[in-house]
Amino acid sequence: MENLHLCPIPYLLIDRKFNVIDASNPGYEFLDVGENFLSIVEEESSPKFARMIHRVPDGTMELNLKKDDAFGLFDLHYRFSDHHQHYHIAIISKDDQYQKVSEKMNGLFDLMGNSPFPRKKANGNEALAKVSSLYLKLSNTSDWNRQEVMDKIKEIETLLQQELTN
User: What is the predicted pLDDT for the residue at 34?
Assistant: First the structure.
């Protein structure tokens, strides 16, 4: 593809077997020509990716991809070219969204630690244990999609409110 290297986002051309044909400069930060795209897809997500991309010729999906020896959550926008018999894939990071989630989580912990409300319980160890458990699950973002994260944050907020009113 002409001038693909100028594309400012990670953009890959892959064949039907998921080997990289060409990429934008940011795309080469993920894979080089000839490498297989599935090598950067989280192992549990590989079958989902392969099924979806072969069934639906164009769309968007959320996947955990490896970059710089760590997994991150990305939106993949893809389209199959019948003419060239390869896939066009644009990769958009969701790190900013998870940064916001992390900041909200830290705010919840601050709220717990600095609560001005009197507590009937001698300490908040039970609520803190529940919140900490949820927070540890959230820190492993490879196991979560955005909606699940927001649901867990709501669950934490509910636990905090219950603790503050008890």
Answer: 93
- The sheet carrying 11-14 orders its strands as 20-23, 11-14, 86-93, 70-81, 58-67
Q: How many domains does the chain have?
A: 2
Query: Which pair of structure tokens corresponds to residue 49?
Result: 């990716």
Q: Are 64 and 142 in contact (CB under 8 A)?
A: yes
Neighbours of 62 (CB within 10 A): 15
- Kindly report the pTM of this predicted structure: 0.60
Please give the residue range of the domain that contains residue 111: 96-165
Question: Would you give the distance in Å from CA 19 to the centre of its chain?
Answer: 23
Amino acid at 51: R
Q: Can you give the CATH number for the domain in which 79 is found?
A: 3.30.450.20
